[in-house]
Amino acid sequence: MGTGQYPTIPDFRFGQEIQFSCDGRPFLTYWSRSWELDADGNRLRPTATESGFVRPQQDRSVELLLTHPTGYTEIWEGSVEVTGLVQDTITSARMEVRTDVVARTEAAKPYTAGHRLYGLVNGELLWTFDMAAMGLDLQNHLAARLKPAGDASPPVADAESAGG
């Protein structure tokens, strides 16, 4: 479950599903969708979708390429740090990225920069997103705690089951 806020919109709660996959090449395919939740945790409406690629580099830097159906594409750059490893399995890690490029269509909202921090902690994915948009400076917009979904492999997370 996550929370969202920004000076130009009312505060809200959201659920989210994120999927990571790898076909053996040196990158992950990433896909996310989210929906607004009411006070009882019921889905109200879809909110955001994004897809792209996570490209870890050998020097522990990382590139994140994202596309959104709302008219913008981002190139993010940052670093990855593995903080826990048990028998060749990553048990805790963090990834911090900042936008290098934000490209927008004419109809897209005036979003200009972002900062994201992801952390794998005790089997859950915690993340936060700071955004500069609508003429405002960078400030927190979204944060969530995601748990692995049911019997799915660990990279698939469903925020709705996180229980807040």
Tell me the layout of helices and strands.
Elements lengths: L1 E5 L2 E13 L6 E10 L5 E14 L4 E8 L3 E15 L2 E16 L6 E11 L2 E10 L5 E10 L8 E2 L6
Antiparallel strand pairs: 1-2, 1-10, 2-3, 2-11, 3-4, 4-5, 5-6, 6-7, 7-8, 8-9, 9-10, 10-11
Description:
This protein has no helices and 11 strands. Strands 1, 2, 3, 4, 5, 6, 7, 8, 9, 10 and 11 form an 11-stranded antiparallel sheet that branches. Helices cover 0% and strands 70% of the residues. Strand 1 and strand 2 form a beta hairpin. It has one domain: Lipocalin. With 164 residues, it is an all-beta fold. The relative contact order is 0.20.
Tally the helices: 0
CATH fold title? Lipocalin
CATH class bucket = Mainly Beta
Integer count of domains: 1
Which value, in Å, is the CA radius of gyration? 16 Å
**What is the fourth-level CATH superfamily?**
Calycin beta-barrel core domain
Query: Average pLDDT, to the nearest integer?
Result: 91
The percentage helix is under 10%
Order of helices and strands: EEEEEEEEEEE
Uncertain regions spanning at least 5 consecutive residues: 151-164
Strand content: over 45%
The count of DSSP E runs of length 2 or more, i.e. the number of strands, is 11
Shape: globular
User: Main beta sheet: strand number and arrangement?
Assistant: 11 strands, antiparallel
Q: Class by helix and strand content?
A: mainly beta
